Amino acid sequence: MASSVISSSPFVCKSPAKKDLGVSSFRKASQISIHGCQRKSISRKIVSVMAPQRSSSTSGSVKTGMTMTEKILAKAAEKSQVVPGDNIWVNVDVLMTHDVCGPGAFGIFKREFGDNAKVVLNLAINILSLLAFSLFVIVTSTLKVWDSEKIVVIPDHYIFTSDKRANRNVDIMREHCREQNIKYFYDITDLGDFRANPDYKGVCHVALAQEGHCRPGEVLLGTDSHTCTAGAFGQFATGIGNTDAGFVLGTGKILLKVPPTMRFILDGEMPSYLQAKDLILQIIGEISVAGATYKTMEFSGTTIESLTMEERMTLCNMVVEAGGKNGVIPPDATTFNYVENRTSVPFQPVYSDANARYNHIFVADYRFDVSKLEPVVAKPHSPDNRALARECKDVKIDRVYIGSCTGGKTEDFMAAAKLFHAAGKQVKVPTFLVPATQKVWMDVYALPVPGAGGKTCAQIFEEAGCDTPTSPSCGACLGGPADTYARLNEPQVCVSTTNRNFPGRMGHKEGQIYLASPYTAAASALTGHVTDPREFLQ
Amino acid sequence: MAAASLRSVNPTLPRTLPSPTRSPPFQSPFLRFAPTSTSFNLKPLVTPPSPFVTRSAAASPQERKTFHGLCYVVGDNIDTDQIIPAEFLTLVPSNPEEYQKLGSHALVGLPASYKDRFVEPGETKTKYSIIIGGENFGCGSSREHAPVCLGAAGAKAVVAQSYARIFFRNSVATGEIYPLDSEVRVCDECSTGDVATVELREGDSVLINHTTGKEYKLKAIGDAGPVIDAGGIFAYARKAGMIPSAAA
Fold first, then answer.
1. Which residues does chain B have within 8 Å of residue A478's beta carbon, measured at their own beta carbons?
2. What is the predicted ipTM?
3. Other CB atoms within 10 A of residue A490 CB
4. Is some CB atom of chain B closer than 8 A to the CB atom of A340?
């Protein structure tokens, strides 16, 4: 029987249930390291729930209830019921890859599933071009991906560079997509002017959402750890490696272990100076970089319901930084409105069986009173090295970076512009702006910022002395080739709206990266120190 | 299908409509099993010892289950950027020449506080067979280049307190390296350069540090073992008859 403990003390060290939920051993019991006990914290209530054992009910007579993630996976595995720990074969709805992992994934697909038809074809072409042309017409490669309309190929990582291998990788993807007739390939050929490429989008996770590939209830896999971003749409989305992706390319299925779900209930009105980035940094600081390993992080509560889709994406984006397998948010009118404006593919939303009777289906419960939270940063060199922004005000910085799937979306730039406009000052350090996609870039130049008398983000950024917004891509979030714009090539201190700050993440091994919200990043740019955005916002 | 087309034409239809009829789930020509089977348990393919050759290195059955060599010790939260910095991700692991190059860059992202390099400059192979780690080894990116570069460099196993899930999964899927769980903080008791043996046995596995004379129990690798033994998820699936063998 589930029991809840509500503590009235300012801080409670939460010990998530460590009971073995019958997890069969693809991997033995995960380890949860608790750093939180030593951390200072804002006063809030924490509810601790002990989850009793749930056994795999093959008889089906006793329904134990399922979380959202369990329901999505059960449906994708064509089963009526699953429990955490089950290894199941799951049908994949969408597979995404990009320029870094795509060549490897397709390479493995061809090596493992291919016969020699293509090799013979190439030989013929070399020997007799005329005869080969007729051969080409008659003999087509027999190797086909499982569904050429369920694969989305999005070059985004190393695009605007002269690195020959990086450029070659985009060419390789073009060849694969042509050969396999991949419907969604957001190609780029003119590296000198991104606007000359009508198909090119930019950062994969933002493009997936903007192009209508994210839908409630579906299973989306990507060869990138931040694929978990799409969980904001109420779907199962997680990152996989090249080999797994090669397998999916051929079969459309993947073997997954059903994760248990940790529930994070966020209630209260969002303060005007707080953003989703602050919420997720708060949570990761609470449970540590391994706090959600092999688990689902499910976010709900009145605060979550008030968030826009882009803010929800920011929240789910960094689930992987806590070790999480996937993040998920129950879909609602906000979700449906966004999705239905971008796709006409039908979808079926699912929801956790969540009332008091089903509390046991969650392995941990965390509650936050958001109205009491303050802007936070993650100090070098770990995403869980949480500190209040205001307590870091003596940290002198060398630069600010606003971009990436985490903090480079339209609303992220709007927020930064809003703060710059409210402050009416110039930045004190180089401030790099990297819109995530073409659409974001266009919004930065076209949309008026509310309360700024009709000015666009771009105008406000220029007046504040920021760098000109650059070509959309992943940019320097992960360093990249040596000539990547805004790469950290010296041991400097950078405040960034990105997602990881391990040593060397943005380039230089001794670079110091403070992860922050767009508000905090903008405020810090204005002072040249890590700065709480309340200095400039009411 | 009628419900599906209705929905696509008229997006304002309430969501209480019965679930739109989907086309039957894709039946892959590559997978040979009933999709409605109950939970699939990965069973060991053969009882040891067995004569099949692994992909990672041609070895006798004894060598495959026992690794002997020098240790390289790292700390907690060794993330994928430290294992293989992002600038090297342009190397495609399925390209044999670039696979070797990846090995030469293994663990080059570690900070300068690590005095011993995992791979000496100019070399492509490491002299260390066993990597000893702390908590959350392999956290960060989903890049498969991480376990691949360690295997390409010649490491055989990682012994760590815990792993990040994507790294663990990628190690198994590629068959490049054995990710083994220790029960104590082995990284605090071993030093780089210690001579050690890892023995993978049916029940308990063990790490023996010959330099210190200490032995450590390791958690059984379980269902992941046979997959790595076979050389990764594809080789395993073929041996298990789940997908057809590669054409001759």
1. 81, 86, 141
2. 0.75
3. 11
4. yes
